[in-house]
Amino acid sequence: VHKEYRGKGMGELLLKAAMEFCFENNYKTVKFRGTDKMQEALQLFMRNGFHQEEVAAQGDFSIVVLSKRI
């Protein structure tokens, strides 16, 4: 979410819409891939039931994979 819109619930709304789409289309698992530098996004997903599945070092940052079964 663009910096101007952070802290206003936009991420929550976008995630909710994405999860509804996945549920309606019979997805079994949803994954989020980001970096350890994306702390606000990682916290958003973890607050919404995602669990850390994988962390892979990539030099000065790490790739983080979160997942949730639906």
Please explain how this structure is put together:
With 70 residues, the chain is of the alpha+beta class. It is built from 2 helices and 3 strands. It has helices at residues 10-24, 39-47, and strands spanning 29-35, 51-57, 62-69. A 3-stranded antiparallel beta sheet has the order 1-3-2, with helices on one face. The mean pLDDT is 96.
Output the keywords.
alpha+beta; three-stranded antiparallel beta sheet; 31% strand
Topology:
Layout: H1 10-24, E1 29-35, H2 39-47, E2 51-57, E3 62-69
Antiparallel strand pairs: 1-3, 2-3
Q: What's the quick description here?
A:
With 70 residues, the protein is of the alpha+beta class. Helices cover 34% and strands 31% of the residues.
Spatial order of strands in the largest sheet: 1-3-2
Helix content: 25-40%
Give the helix/strand class. Answer: alpha+beta
Average pLDDT reading: 96
Low-confidence stretches: none
Strand content: 25-35%
Distance between the termini: 23 Å
